[in-house]
Amino acid sequence: QSNMSNQTLKIVVCRDLGPDVMPLFYERPELDIVTWPHDRPCERAWMLENVPGATGIVVVFGEPVNQEVIDLAGPSLKVVSTMSVGYDHIDLAALKARGIRAGYTPDVLTDAVADLAIMLALMAGRNGSETIDLVQTGQWPQYSWSPYGFCGPQLSAPSAFLSSLTPNVQSQRTAGFIGFGRIGQATLARLVPFGITDVVYYTNPANDSDPKAIERFAKLEEELCKRHPSLKSIFRVSKAELAKQSDVVFVLAPGGPATRHVVDEEFLKEMRRTAVLVNASRGTLVDSDALAKALKEKWLWAAGVDVVEGEPKVGSDHVLVKEPRCTVLPHIGSATLETRLGMATLAAKNLIAGVFNEQMPMELK
Ligand code: DGY
Question: 61 CB under 6 A from ligand 1?
Answer without folding.
Answer: yes
